[in-house]
Amino acid sequence: MNWVEFLAPYKQVVEELKVKLKGMRPQFEFESSHSPIEFVTGRVKPIPSIIEKVKMREIAKENVEQEIQDIAGLRVVCQFVDDIYTVVDMLRKRNDFTIVEERDYITKKKKSGYRSYHMIIEYPVEMIHGRKMVLAEIQIRTLAMNFWATNEHSLNYKYDGRIPAEIKERLQNAAEAAFLLDEEMSKIKHEIQEAQWIFHRK
Ligand code: 0O2
């Protein structure tokens, strides 16, 4: 496998989508309205991580592009849970890609405690030899969900996917605490936004 050649369109997609999604924030600021987007990140899945997934799921070489949907990964981080659905609605209205699948791990959290909204999109990228359709995953989550997922991801890496039961339980409790934090913050959303607006004007 020539990885540089294989990953080139994915790199391009991540760069293009980062610009497009990041570009939404200043538009809200220009209109003096609350931006549902706090920040955007993107990455191309590391090669060892792709190889591991291929091996674990016994994916045939010719099916890698179709089966591993998060080689190009974008993350949109929001302040409030409501904002996630605002972003989802805005993404559904776009004409520069098509949505292939949506997974709501917020209303239906994962067993680990993981919460996030996932969108798999098909994005047309113009390469020097023509257009290529590339799958990408957009994860949309709150700051609290992101804090939890980042920490859990590190622990998963540390324990090679076998987190001890006691830590797993603590993580599940932490996931609930994070969700409670999101709920409490949502209840005082307007107060927070007013404060941020005053701060922004100073
Ligand atoms: P990495 O290192 O972030 O790239 P399946 O698990 O079979 O339903 P699939 O294809 O894994 O299907 O998709 P899913 O579940 O939507 O997960 C894709 C990505 O979501 C993961 O990529 C993670 O980034 C994130 N994710 C899903 N579940 C969890 C979780 O329990 N904890 C954390 N921290 N992240 C999660 P990768 O390839 O697993 O990892």
UniProtKB/TrEMBL annotation:
Pathway: Purine metabolism; ppGpp biosynthesis; ppGpp from GTP: step 1/2. The keyword Coiled coil does not apply. It comes from the Bacteria. It holds the Pfam family RelA_SpoT. One of its GO terms (biological process) is guanosine tetraphosphate biosynthetic process. One of its GO terms (molecular function) is ATP binding. Residues 42-163 form the RelA/SpoT domain. Its EC number is 2.7.6.5. Transmembrane segments: none annotated. Keywords: ATP-binding, GTP-binding, Kinase, Nucleotide-binding, Transferase. It is an enzyme of class 2 (transferase). InterPro entries: GTP_Pyrophosphokinase, NT_sf, RelA_SpoT. Homotetramer. PANTHER family: GTP PYROPHOSPHOKINASE YJBM. Belongs to the RelA/SpoT family. This is GTP diphosphokinase.
